[in-house]
Amino acid sequence: MYREAVGQFDRVAAVMGLDANVADRLRVPQKSTVVSFPFRHDTYNKVETIFGYRVQHLTTMGPTKGGIRYAPDVDLGEVTALAMLMTWKCSIVGVPFGGAKGGVRIDPMKLSRAELQRVTRRFTMEIINVIGPDTDIPAPDLGTNEQVMAWLMDTYSQHVGHAVPAVVTGKPPALGGSVARREATGRGLIFLVPQAANVVDLNPAEATVAIHGFGNVGLYAAIAADQAGLKVVAVSDISGGVYNPDGLDVAAAAKWVDENRVLAGYPDADAIEGEEVFSLDVDILIPAAVQGVIHKGNADDVKARLVIEGANNPTTLEADDMLRERGVFIVPDILANAGGVTVSYFEWVQDVQKYFWTENEVVARLREIMTRAFEDVHSIAIAENVDMRTAALIKGIRRVADAKLVRGVFP
Ligand code: NAD
Fold first, then answer.
1. Cis, peptide link before residue 204, omega less than 30° from 0
2. How far is the CA of 101 from the centre of ligand 1 (A)?
């Protein structure tokens, strides 16, 4: 995944004619922390060694920012690639952060609540010297949630001796979390539908949607799509998918997952294999689970005219080319899912100022930033005659490169 991220960066750096010294500097992260620590299971005698990572790609323009994922196969390369993508993402929406990402190599679905809390607190202690409200601010990602962020904030605060809400974003509102952060990534994606639909001459009022992933991003994308009048016909998660060509009852599916953890067994739609969502006859496809799910083996089966990437890196480079050759319009991850980091930035600003905004203020500012970012990227795509992913990277890299050049080299 890291090789793909660097390959993509090199391709765009060449298109932009980026200064070779700056390009060299941006290819590698500024700081990487790899830790291993003991984790005691609830069955008291079992102690497992767990690996954790925190990678900070760019510290030029402010603190670093990025999620922490819990997944059984997460590794340093994946986290490094995602940290780099975070840098471009922050730059595209104009928030003053560099990119970071963290990971703990564990399957959260197999942990009890007490185990999840112990892993989180110990991992936080392992990285405590490299995080902080002015240095590096974690957030939720795959396999982590508001509760995990609350434990992280508590552990950090216990360590320094006073409450530090701004050390993390995506925490519960009771602890200084922002209203509307939970919904931000999914909602941000759906804000872009009218502009993207316009490009491919699609009427959003008649559009059908399939979503891969029904966690934070997929669930709130489904809810926002439903509220916007789009017809959500299929959603899937790690347990499989559900399909109803007449439109799903999104609220009922959400309630089912809330009560049963996964979609499997949901009674009011046809059960399908999770992978089937990619080949359904829909207008809009939203991958919102894990990376690499649209690949050369299934890219030609995609019937959607619009792919809006909720997950990070859901489309391999080969599949990206195949889709574009067939005229599919792709709104790339670093633009499409930037609503999460945008409201994370709002949350950090509110925590630092100790002054909280209303939901209307948060949502209106999110909409303004997302739609402006789309417009900017689309204008670059037209002016430079490139695809949206290349255009988004150009926008992201350009601002970072400018900042690097004016800061100069120390000493
Ligand atoms: P989550 O853990 O809340 O939900 C993940 C969803 O994907 C769940 O429905 C899960 O069942 C499903 N899933 C997990 N592994 C799968 C697999 N191997 N195959 C099929 N389905 C699988 O995670 P999330 O926060 O919604 O993140 C999803 C993606 O969006 C990730 O790529 C993440 O990096 C990206 N993202 C998240 C945010 C955010 O604010 N949470 C912001 C930007 C990007």
1. no
2. 14
Catalytic residue among 65, 101, 171, 231: 101
Judge contact between 250 and 232, C-beta under 8 A. Answer: yes
Query: Domain 2-167 belongs to what topology?
Result: Rossmann fold (3.40.50)
Q: CA-to-CA distance for 6 and 379, rounded, in angstroms?
A: 24
Ligand 1 pocket list (CB less than 6 A): 140-143, 185, 213-218, 237-238, 274, 288-290, 310-312, 337, 340
CATH number for the domain formed by residue range(s) 185-336:
3.40.50.720
How many angstroms separate the CA atoms of 240 and 141, rounded? Answer: 21
Sequential DSSP letters for 18-29:
--HHHHHHHTS-
Specify the pLDDT at position 5.
Answer: 94
What pLDDT shows up at residue 76?
98
Exposed, middle or buried by CB within 10 Å (0-12, 13-18, 19+), for 94?
middle
Give 91-108 pLDDT, tens digit per residue: 999 999 999 999 999 999
pTM over 0.85: yes
**Mean pLDDT across the stretch 397-401?**
97
- State residue 44's pLDDT score: 82
Pairing of strands 329-331, 306-308: parallel
Over 90: is that where the pLDDT of 371 sits?
Answer: yes
Q: Answer for the pair 146, 140: CB distance below 8 angstroms, yes or no.
A: yes
Neighbouring CB atoms inside 10 A of 318's CB total 13
What are the beta bridge partners of residue 52?
35, 104
In CATH terms, are 2-167 and 185-336 the same topology?
Answer: yes
